[in-house]
Amino acid sequence: MFNKQTVRDVDVRGKKVLVRVDFNVPLKDGQVADDTRIRAALPTITYLLDNGAAVILISHLGRPKGEHKPELSLRPVATHLEKLLGRPVTFAEDCIGPAAETAAAALEPGQVLLLENTRFHPEEKKNDPQMARQLAALADLYVNDAFGSAHRAHASTEGVAHYLPAVAGFLMEKEIRYLGQAIANPEKPFTAILGGAKIGDKIGVIRNLLDKADQILIGGGMANTFFKAQGYPVGDSLVEDDALETARSLLADAGSKLRLPVDVVIADAFDNAANSRIMAVGPIPEGWRILDIGPETVANYAKVIAAAKTVVWNGPMGVFEMPNFAKGTFGIAEAVAASDAVSIVGGGDSVAAVKQSGLAEKITHISTGGGASLEMLEGKVLPGLAALRDA
Ligand code: ADP
Ligand code: MG
Question: For the residues 301-318, what does the mean pLDDT come to?
Answer without folding.
Answer: 97
